[in-house]
Amino acid sequence: MTIVQLLTLINSAIAFGTVIMLGAIGEILIEKAGNLNLGIPGIMYLGGIGGMIAAFFYELHGGASPVVGLILSFVCSMLFAALGGLIYAFLTITLRANQNVTGLTLTIFGGGVANFFGASLNTLAGGVGQISVPVTSSAYIAYTPLGYMGTFGKLFFAHGFMAYLAIALAIAMRYFLNRTRTGLNLRAVGENPGTADAAGINVTAYKYLAIIVGAAIAGLGGLFYTMDYIKGTWANDGTIEGLGWLAVALVIFATWKPLNAIWGSYLFGFVYWAYLYIPGLSRRSLELFKMLPYVITLVVLIIVSLRKKRENQPPASLGLSYFREER
Amino acid sequence: MAKAAHTTREPVILMSKRGELLPPWKSWGIRVIGFLLSLVVSGIVIMMVSGLNPAAVFATMLDGAVGTTKRSWVTVRDAMTLLCIAVGLAPAFKMRFWNIGAEGQILVGAIASAACMIYLKNLPTLLLIPVMICASLIAGGIWGFFPGLFKARWNTNETLFTLMMNYIAIQLTSFFVALWENPFGSNSVGVINSQNKQGWLPNLLQEGYNKDFGWNVIIVLTVTLIMYLYMNHSKHGYEISVIGDSENTARYAGIRVNRAYVRTIVFSGAICGLAGFVAVSGASHTISTSTAGGRGFTAIIVAWLAQFNSVVMIVFSFLLVFLQKGAQAIASTYNLSQEVSEMITGIILFFLLGSEFFVNYTVHFRGKKVAK
Q1: pLDDT of A44-83, one tens digit each?
Q2: Considering only alpha carbons, which residue of chain B is nearest residue A101?
Q3: 3-class DSSP state of B16
Q4: Rounded distance between C-alpha atoms, residue B173 and residue B184, angstroms
């Protein structure tokens, strides 16, 4: 393997990792509040299509400024994803529907909405062919001149701004969860909502906010995928759903710690793309190779449950609805 | 100051659990209202995105799902496959074992069936089909065994475990698709044994090209009946419902909880594997990564909404497949994208999930006396 190949591999790993890292950070926040949200793939879909819709209509009406397109799509993406989170939050918290079932429904719904609009937005607006938003996308892909400075520049500076945003969010999430009073309260809600309630923490408000904010962050994963990863187009091939489940897997792999999600996501990306650079891999063994991220996650899940270290466990009341009268 | 205000405040909306269960006509009435509301909302959504008259759209749906004999049979076939998965999932879910790995269990069952069709095609059909059934049951059972074992022994989170098993199964399917590729380079298996139809479930009612799916119906309804008896009239079924209500009670009563976990999830996985057999031998006669096609997830919702009641599961399976077929008809008639069906399914499921709340809880508004 040459150095150029290695660089390309690392760069694709980082791009791939950024998608699932954003999804995972959002999901960590949600799970820390005690909600197992299996709707992450749907939320990432909503985030992706939200940004797409904003950028599409902006460019359709003659918008030519990449920065405006970026702001519009960014805000719209978070809004769509947060709305998906709100549906989930309302059903699971206020109406006490089962979290797993609601999450799966959200995944079906989000995928349906996104792929429906992704495939027919152009037709509905009277155009033909594949949807594409080159102007907005260029703002996401752009990087500073530092990115052209040799190997070092290509390695560290040749990424769209969201790759850095993801890392910043992971660090901020870690600070929020472990170093702030609000973060402590949030974790209390996820561990034991009854105790948190008795201590005067508004469990419902914490859960709602955590889910909505977490969903908005996870939606950015979908946005990064459509705008940067596939360069401002839309593909109805179900990739986002697969990436969404990987994001859920990454949360386990990272044992609910945002900082682990950073290197974990890059590792997933590396393993995912490594097959391109292994000589003599037949198509069959390639498919087996692609199994690796899931097998690794499974092994981590098993090891974590075997070792029973307290700091590596899932939040104690993960997946359970809280109803004050039922204590 | 804030505290004083807090003590005198009364919530605007007060929710409380219903004291006794509602009579069936009331609880089902609530669900039907939820369903009708969801139809109104999906109608509005369809109107907004396409400018079509919702009544015409629903007529198209009806035509798409049951418009011709062939379409009706396809609807029945798909409803049966979905029902088979839901029936398989029910026991696991009833004991609060979150098996979201049906997708994977279907796929390994499908792989096992397809393997039999390919490698054992010289066996007579009468022998081959039972072999395929056994193989798919075993494959699905194995896929369920591991999460069950780890849950029982080390309390490993089964939701996440089964989720990962799905993806391993999907890659495994891709591997076998590449292995059995036919014709070479097409990246698909193609119709297996298209010449002599070895290992295909035959027609039940008539000979000839027009396939009825009578055998699918018989197989799946038999499984449903067996499951009904198992859940309601056997010691194992009783143990499952006790564990589902309270694991500690079950342990105190001397039920071997761990053994029940493993046994039930193997059983559950095996039935899902059988659904893979039904999908391959009874419907598509091929295998691909979309053989399961999200049905493993949809079936969870079917089983949950039906509260694991076998008869109600039949109703919900038909409802969901009917909606999907109908929405696909809308899509092709009005030149919309196929995914409109998932969007509508999502909306309807949200409403059905939400209506469960009103079945189990009452809502009081401030100022009104709480009726006792």
Answers
A1: 999 999 999 998 888 888 777 888 888 999 999 999 999 9
A2: B301
A3: strand
A4: 17
pLDDT tens-digit profile of A138-163?
888 877 777 777 777 777 777 888 88
SS3 A129: coil
Could you say which of B17, B155, B167 has the minimum Cβ distance to residue A294? B167
Check: CB of residue A297 under 8 Å from CB of residue A253.
Answer: yes
Grouping H, G, I as helix, E, B as strand and the rest as coil, residue A232 is: coil
Of B150, B174, B356, nearest to A97 by CB-CB distance is B356
Q: Is the CB of residue B107 less than 8 Å from the CB of residue B169?
A: yes
Q: And the tokens for A232?
A: 């401002």
Determine how many CB atoms are found less than 10 A away from the CB of residue B119. 10
Tell me the C-alpha distance between B40 and B38, whole Å. 5
* Contact status of B280 with chain A (Cβ, < 8 Å): no
Write the DSSP symbol of residue A280: T
- Interface residue A230 vs chain B (CB under 8 A): no
CATH code for the structural domain at A3-326: 1.10.3470
What are the domain boundaries of chain A?
A: 3-326
Mutation for testing the A interface, residue in B37, B50, B175 having most A CBs under 10 Å: B175
CA angle B165, A240, B147 (to 5 degrees): 10
With an 8 Å Cβ cutoff, are B175 and A98 in contact? no
Interface membership of A75 toward B (CB under 8 Å): no
Would an 8 Å CB–CB cutoff place B186 in contact with chain A?
no
The chain B residue lying nearest A283, using CA atoms, is B178
Contact assignment for B17 to A291 by CB distance below 8 Å: no
CA distance A282 to chain B (A): 10
Nearest to B35, CA basis, from B338, B263, B353, B306 = B353
Q: How many Å apart are CA A40 and CA A28, to the nearest integer?
A: 11
pTM, rounded to two decimals: 0.88
The nearest alpha carbon in chain B to A120 belongs to B337
Band of the pLDDT at A127, cuts 50, 70, 90?
low
Q: Could you tell me the two tokens for A21?
A: 């890292």
**Rg, Å, chain A Cα set:** 20
What six digits make up the tokens of A256? 């609910």
Flag whether the ipTM exceeds 0.90. no
Residue A33 per-residue DSSP state:
T
Euclidean distance between CA atoms B159 and B136, whole angstroms: 23
Q: What letter represents residue B186's amino acid? A: S
pLDDT in tens, A214-231: 999 999 999 999 888 888
What Å distances lie between residue A298 and A7, A262, A294, B160, CA to CA? 29, 19, 6, 8
The DSSP line for B216-241 is HHHHHHHHHHHHHHHHHHSHHHHHHH
Residue written as tokens 């703002």? A139
